């Protein structure tokens, strides 16, 4: 008759200590209970996943977090670029430009609401990132416009992008092209179509 014992033990994964999980040892075969193995595997995967899929770039005082874009339908001439840019230094810096081989031009824009009308205009002089702050490029706010796209941006792609700063070194990042739900698709369309947007600031 095979004899088994349940041992309570703590799993230590990475830098943290995690709750007890039952470890069942088969004294004859020295094997681990399958349920325990699966539990540890799932826990380890959950702990590792955020790190494995982290999407940020750092150079000097500048950190660019989660640069991303949206898929574009065939024939659409423009795409967008979003990200957070942090300046941990003691001096102000300015994002003055960007470039990608996937577009003829990249410019910095701001979307804002005025008297119920959504307007988009270029950010003159570049986007300032004061010392010790983070500036977000996000929908309905600051963003990059990828103009004269050479091919559609497809979900799952990574788009190479060069960011040029005044007061900091140039950085190479990649925009992850992420899925778009229906409501966001409508909103994005309004942000970048001539019919729903006042482009008088251009």
TrEMBL record:
Span-the-membrane segments of this chain are none
InterPro entries, per database record = LpqE-like (IPR007410), Lxx211020-like (IPR058248), PCuAC_sf (IPR036182)
Any Pfam family matching the protein: PCuAC
What name appears for this protein in its UniProt entry?
DR1885-like metal-binding protein
């Amino acid at each position: 008759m095979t004899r088994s014992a349940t041992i309570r033990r703590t799993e230590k994964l990475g830098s943290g200590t995690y709750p007890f999980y039952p470890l069942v040892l088969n004294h004859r075969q020295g094997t681990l209970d399958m349920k325990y193995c699966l539990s540890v595997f799932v826990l380890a995967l959950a702990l590792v996943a955020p790190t494995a899929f982290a999407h940020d770039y750092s150079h000097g005082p500048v950190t660019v977090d989660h640069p991303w874009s949206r898929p574009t339908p065939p024939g659409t001439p423009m795409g967008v670029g979003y990200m957070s840019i942090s300046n941990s230094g003691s001096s102000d810096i300015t994002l003055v430009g960007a470039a990608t081989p996937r577009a003829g031009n990249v410019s910095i824009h701001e979307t804002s609401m005025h008297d119920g009308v959504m307007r988009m205009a270029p950010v003159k002089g570049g986007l300032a990132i004061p010392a010790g702050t983070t500036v977000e490029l996000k929908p309905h706010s600051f963003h990059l416009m990828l103009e004269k796209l050479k091919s559609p941006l497809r979900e799952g792609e990574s788009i190479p992008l060069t960011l040029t700063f005044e007061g900091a070194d140039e950085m190479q990042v990649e925009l992850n092209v992420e899925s778009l739900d229906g409501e966001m698709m409508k909103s994005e369309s309004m942000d970048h179509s001539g019919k729903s947007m006042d482009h008088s600031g251009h």
